[in-house]
Amino acid sequence: MEPQEEAPTLRDAVARSPGASMPPRLDEEERPEGGASLEADGAGADGLWELPVEHAERRPECSRCSRPQKVCLCPFLPVHPLHISTQLYIIQHPAEESKVLRTVPLLTACLPQDKCKVMIGRRFSEERDVELSTVCRKSGTLILYPGAEATNLEEFITDAPVYPSTIILIDGTWSQAKDIFYKNSLFRLPKQVQLKTSTSSQYVIRMQPTNRCLSTLECAAVALSILEKNHDIRETLLHPLQALCSFQLQHGAQIRLSKEYLLKNGLYPKPMPKNKRKLRKMELLMNSVKI
Ligand SMILES: [Zn+2]
User: Fold this and answer.
1) How far is the CA of 75 from the centre of ligand 1 (A)?
2) Which of 46, 196, 228, 281 has the fewest CB atoms lying closer than 10 Å?
3) pLDDT the model gives residue 273
4) Averaged pLDDT of the chain
5) From ligand 1's centre to the CA of 68, what distance in Å?
6) What's the 206 CA to ligand 1 centre distance in angstroms?
7) pLDDT tens-digit series, residues 236-265
8) How far away, in angstroms, is 252 Cα from ligand 1 center?
9) How far is Cα 232 from Cα 176, in angstroms, rounded to an integer?
10) pLDDT of residue 205
11) 270 Cα–ligand 1 center, Å
12) pLDDT at position 37
């Protein structure tokens, strides 16, 4: 990985007081490469990265977008579910389901029910998860997980022997997704792909580990627009995310710079970990080496 230009900048973050009206418009030219499909480890146990604007207890939720009714995002969703031929499977870490600001409900609300299936769990087996096993063994199935073994999706589809019909995404923090990917042999069966995009995350209110990491919704938006060969899909799917971030910023949320940016600029607010493995991971992040 190459050193990245950072966006949003520190200047943006400092200048942006609570109540700022719009999410940042990132300069297209400065956007670093995208590719990872993982959300941050940052929204962690100590609550440091949690947003101050939403309370932990669940309020009545909108049945379509799963947002609290008062801040329902349905006006930003397409009137009718998008017409797509690709089948999406979201493998969701159980911890992700309970998070207040999650992107998968927005994604499922935009897609036909039968085209987007969310499976919650950490371990999946051939015996217990027959449908998933069958899907993983199909030649038209892809799994989106970045790494040395992964092929760029756009390149892959140009000469794929069988045009992909199904794509699997993992929804969780970086470490949760890694655990799910490597500890389930089923996920080694589909062709592994990644996204090579010039976009950095627009999900600016949740800290991403590196500048290239996209939220699950963004990954799905980019992947589907490539597979369906329709750029409008990406715009439509990102619309509710942009509305969510805009709303949160208007109500006091702060832009979350990536952990990579904070580390590289000496702004990481917590002491460096004592655990050697974690420390090594941080050092790799600082040096922009793939972890
Ligand atoms: Zn709603």
Assistant:
1) 7
2) 46
3) 73
4) 76
5) 8
6) 20
7) 999 998 888 887 777 766 666 566 666 666
8) 21
9) 31
10) 61
11) 36
12) 43
In the chain, % of residues over pLDDT 70 = 64
Which backbone phi and psi does 244 adopt, to 5 degrees?
Answer: -60, -50
189-208: average pLDDT: 75
Contact 62, 74 (CB under 8 A): yes
Q: Which residue has the higher pLDDT, 171 or 71?
A: 171
* Ligand 1 centroid to residue 76 C-alpha, Å: 9
pLDDT at 281 over 80: no
pTM for the structure as a whole = 0.68
Q: Which of 129, 123, 155 is nearest to 142 (CA)?
A: 155
Q: How far is the CA of 65 from the centre of ligand 1 (A)?
A: 4
Burial 16-53 (b: 16+ CB within 10 A, else e): beeebeebbebeeeebbbbbbbbbbbbbeeeeebbbeb
pLDDT at 266 > cutoff 70: no
